[in-house]
UniProtKB/TrEMBL annotation:
<dbReference type="InterPro" id="IPR003736">
    <property type="entry name" value="PAAI_dom"/>
</dbReference>
<feature type="domain" description="Thioesterase">
    <location>
        <begin position="53"/>
        <end position="126"/>
    </location>
</feature>
<dbReference type="GO" id="GO:0016289">
    <property type="term" value="F:acyl-CoA hydrolase activity"/>
</dbReference>
<protein>
    <submittedName>
        <fullName>HotDog domain-containing protein</fullName>
    </submittedName>
</protein>
<dbReference type="InterPro" id="IPR029069">
    <property type="entry name" value="HotDog_dom_sf"/>
</dbReference>
<keyword id="KW-0378">Hydrolase</keyword>
<dbReference type="Pfam" id="PF03061">
    <property type="entry name" value="4HBT"/>
</dbReference>
<dbReference type="InterPro" id="IPR006683">
    <property type="entry name" value="Thioestr_dom"/>
</dbReference>
Amino acid sequence: MEQARIKFEEAMATQANDFETFFLARFFDLKFKYGDEVCIVEAPVENYMFNPQGTLHGGVISFILDVSMGHLCKKFLGSAVTLEMKTQYLSGVHGGIVTCTAAFLKKGKKIVQMESRMTNQDGKPVAMATATFYLL
């Protein structure tokens, strides 16, 4: 619990109400990179993020997948909100670093469809999500 308290205090001190620096991005220590219409988000897996079975909680996984797609939209198309998202869990994660790579499936005038794939530090699939976003 001390580790979570330290991360919370660091996030409070360094957060800003903006993309890449909002509180939860700081709390989960998300790192952002962009490529040719892709957004890559890396996150260290800490034990305070675990479910009772000792693996990365599905809600944390979905959060990181969603953030990768939201940041992809913001970078290349503008601000958007998630209309719906489907997450498929493929394997558990016990530690290390996870990486999400988000890409566009279809870009409309107001509706955007994307996918994001999460891998563990060995490059093995952890989860994937497809989502529909609405451009603001």
